[in-house]
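WARN retry 2 of 3 for item q-0093 after timeout on previous attempt; input resubmitted unchanged.
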Amino acid sequence: MRTRVAVLADYANIAEQGKLNVMGIFSILFAPVAPVIHPQMQLVTQFEFEPSEVGEKDVKFVLLDEDGREHFRLGVHINVQRNPNGLATLANQILVINGAKFPRFGSYEFHILIGETLAAEIPLEVTQIQTTPPAALQG
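OK item q-0093 returned
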């Protein structure tokens, strides 16, 4: 198994013939106050499996903060099918996350595990942005 793509994005889809389309890749969220609630993001992955690796796979998506605390966990099962051409099989996954809550500013990381193997890490910085009003002009 090999990780080909692992990103956070504004939008993604899988088009005809399995093409993976990704728009608005990001790794930083800016907000004036914490907690930060991001309305929607998509965690997009593409894994490549060799013909010998076909079959059921358990995939886990876990969000950790910089102290190693878990904030989110979701598990799914995928069935990796044999490619009829004898080539490696690509498995695209798009996880839509609505209302993701980040309790404080700092570093976060999504871990994607296939079975017990860490397949990808996606870092995310949640950063405070200042919203002070502009200084009054003096004449």
